[in-house]
Structure formats: C-alpha cells, structure tokens
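User: Can you recover a sequence for this backbone? Please restate the input before giving your answer.

Assistant: Of course. Working from this structure:
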C-alpha cells in the first residue's frame, strides 16, 4: 500500500494495535525513466509500479516503523541482496534487529531490473550465484565470532562482527521468486518463501509441494513460512484459498492509486481485522 510519509508512524501504530503480524516494504535503488517492459511476473512485461513511484531505503524506513511500534515484525519484500556488499547488509539488518528487539525478517530476491546493476557496477549475470553466497556469509557473520571469506566475488577478514542479532536463532531470511532457482534457494538456504507473481491456487500448491520435497531431501525440517500477497490478500475468501494452497502468511493492504493518510490506514486496518482476520482465526485458530 502507498502511505504518505507524514502518516507512516500513525499507520504503523494502527497496524500494530489492530493485531497485524508484520509490515512489509520493498526496495528499488532507482527506476528508469519511462516504463521498462522486462518485468518477469506480468504477461506484458510491465511492472506494477510506474517509474515515478517514490522509493525509500527499506532498512531506514523500517527503523522508523520500529520506533513507532512494539509487536509487528519488520520485513522486506524484497531486499535486492546482490546489489549490496554482504558486510553492509549484515550490519544494516542486525542494527534494525537490535533496535526493534528482534523483529526483523529479511525477505530477499535476486532482482530483475538490470539497469540497477549497471548503475551500481554490479554484475547482473552472476546475481543468483552471489545471492546464494551472500546468504551463507550473512549467517556466518550473525553466528560466528570470527569470519574470513575469500571468493571470486567477496574477500574480507578475519573480522569480528558484533553485535549479533537480538533473535537467538538469527534473522530469518525468506527468499522471493517463482523461478526454479528461487524455489531451490528457498528450500535449501531460506527460512521461508515469498511468492511473487500472483499464481493460481493450483500453481501455489504445486510450488509449495516442490519446496517441501526439496527441503525433505536436504534434511531441513525447521519452521518455514510461505508468504503470499497481491490478489491473495483481498478478502476472507482469497485468504482461505491461499491457506488451503499452503500459505502461512498473507500480506494485505488497502491497494489504491494514491497514497493514504495515517487515519485512512487505521480505518482500513480496524475493518480488515473485524471482517477478515477475526473470522479466519475463529475457524483456523
């Protein structure tokens, strides 16, 4: 949803007070002038946001949200992991996690807009391989006392990385995308999967089953979230269908063409809680 910057604190508090589980914000460093036609998740290749859409740094924005809330999780959807050096990502995420008392989920993706990689001097073709590598680096920095890393893409250390995350199990990393590589990455390296593209219930269930099979093959049986949004968060019926297809979290919002004020979001949040969340929880616990 689009929220006026002046209303972010009030909107965040409204979601917190209404019992929403999490707040999700996207990332783009910059958007090209005009409308690119290379977006991989729509039939015509056009992205769902116009090029003039305001973009904010997700970790900075979520730090502001953290100071205005007490319980909602602070999540990125998605943080473009291979656009950033892993040391910088590790530092930003752990700072937010400590500031918020352990409420961060790092939703990550490889990125689709080649321009952003060209503009920042990062290689687009290797972004998948580097994403796998960065996930491993982040987990080491957040758990090990001293870390040395040397590869074709990243070289540092030995370093002592302090503080560690507030979450004892580490900051959850959920992987976004619907390609075969993204499903494999989520299953073998992630703590969850973020569906992108608005699949049908059959497609969603098939992807969840594929991830479950790969997790079982890899011997991974810990907690795993399946996050969906877009068309799935419209009403009680769509949320029920998402849950039946394997989703554990549905991202909803008052999707409008213009930014909303804090009171607008508060009104929507209370109505959505009463009309959708409460009836769903009565049946599903």
């Amino acid at each position: 949803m689009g929220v006026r910057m002046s209303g972010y604190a009030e909107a965040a508090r409204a979601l917190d007070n209404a019992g929403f589980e999490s707040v999700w914000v996207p990332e783009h460093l910059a958007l090209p002038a005009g409308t690119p036609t290379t977006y991989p998740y729509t039939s015509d290749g056009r992205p769902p946001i116009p090029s003039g859409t305001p973009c904010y740094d997700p970790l900075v924005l979520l730090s502001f949200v953290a100071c205005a809330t007490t319980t909602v999780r602070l999540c990125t959807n998605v943080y473009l992991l291979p656009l950033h050096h892993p040391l910088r990502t590790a530092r930003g995420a752990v700072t937010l996690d400590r500031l918020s008392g352990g409420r961060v989920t790092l939703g990550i993706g490889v990125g689709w807009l080649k321009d952003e990689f060209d503009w920042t001097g990062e290689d687009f073709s290797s972004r998948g391989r580097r994403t796998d590598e960065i996930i491993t680096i982040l987990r080491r920095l957040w758990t090990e006392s001293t870390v040395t890393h040397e590869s074709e893409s990243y070289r540092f250390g030995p370093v002592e990385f302090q503080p560690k995350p507030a979450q004892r199990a580490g900051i959850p990393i959920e992987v976004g995308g619907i390609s075969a590589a993204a499903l494999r990455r989520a299953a073998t390296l992630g703590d969850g999967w973020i569906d992108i593209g608005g699949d049908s219930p059959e497609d969603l269930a098939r992807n969840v089953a594929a991830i479950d099979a790969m997790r079982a093959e890899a011997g991974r049986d810990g907690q795993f979230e399946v996050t969906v949004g877009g068309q799935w968060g419209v009403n009680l019926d769509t949320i029920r269908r998402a849950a039946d297809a394997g989703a554990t979290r549905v991202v909803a919002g008052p999707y409008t063409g213009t930014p909303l004020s804090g009171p607008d979001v508060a009104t929507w949040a209370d109505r959505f809680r009463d009309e959708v969340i409460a009836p769903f929880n009565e049946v599903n616990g």
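That completes the design. The longest strand covers residues 104-109.
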